[in-house]
Amino acid sequence: MADAGAKKKRRQYNVEYLKYGFIPSPHSEQLPFCLICEKTFSNEAMKPSRLSGHCKKLHRNKADKNVNYSKALRDKCDNNKTLHDMFAAEAHNNDYGQRISYNIALNIAKAGKAHAIGETLVTPVIHEVMTIALKTNSEPVLKAIFLSNNTVQRRIDEMDGDTEENICNILRNTEFSLQLDESTLSNNVSLL
Fold this sequence. Notes:
By secondary structure, this protein is mostly helical. The protein is about 55% helix and about 5% strand. It has helices at about 50-60, 65-80, 85-110, 115-135, 140-145, 150-175, and strands spanning about 20-25, 30-35, 185, 190. It comes from Octopus vulgaris. This is SCAN domain-containing protein 3-like.
């Protein structure tokens, strides 16, 4: 009887498995991934006989293809965008739009202008610059930049709170001293 505590043998991927149309799974290097049906199999299936059997049984019309066909499928699979890649690109677009929105709000605050100037002046100016000077469609950029009156006010308040918090942290963590002078007024009242 086999020892119950014995470890299972974990097979490693071999480059020769590419001729059967298999690569290591994108999620785990120890699992085979069929390039044709795009399925991941257990580690126990990582035997040449099982990989070949899968290919001959389920992909008869592609079983006699050479290794170059599998390499082309592998390259195509490597170039496919994942869900993570799509969300990362969208998050990057939102990130630059948010950064631009904060910078414009900062400039509005520095200039001491009304917060509504973002919608009434800045947005049309961005549109004009992009369409006339850069000859590009300004719509995706303008959708990413939020400059409504309330948004500008909120961004200025957030930056104000953040600046105040940073200054307080610096003062808490920095040693400094205060010098006080005491003097008296003409009616013998002391004044610090």
